[in-house]
Design brief:
By secondary structure, this protein is mainly alpha-helical. It is built from 4 helices and no strands. Helix 1 runs antiparallel to helix 2 and helix 1 runs parallel beside helix 3.
Amino acid sequence: MTVEQRSFEPGTDVLIRKVDSHLAAVRAGLCGPELELAERLAAALRELVASTAQASAADRGQVRAAVHYFVLRREGRGRLLPVRSLAAAQRVVNRVVVELDRPDLLVEPRSERPAGEPALPAADLAVG
């Protein structure tokens, strides 16, 4: 029997499973650009989780918060608890990406950036 060794911390496995589980759930209800955005957000979050496994507690906390924001979508109940949109999750993920100096993981809608044009510089994104 072969034993597979993982390089992830126990908490990272949990976060990646949450992202993957949520993506599987939204695949049933989304299509087109929304599904593509959800898949790109999930990919960015997986990479952030993996790349910050050995980072500071503050960096891991930012990533954990972004994961929870992505997966814990509230159901709308009038004006009190609005449904979080994928665009809102995109803003949160991009804010964390900028904070962690990983501009390669910026998630932008495909239609906003022509092919070959670089992603927004970190200075162009408002953080805070």
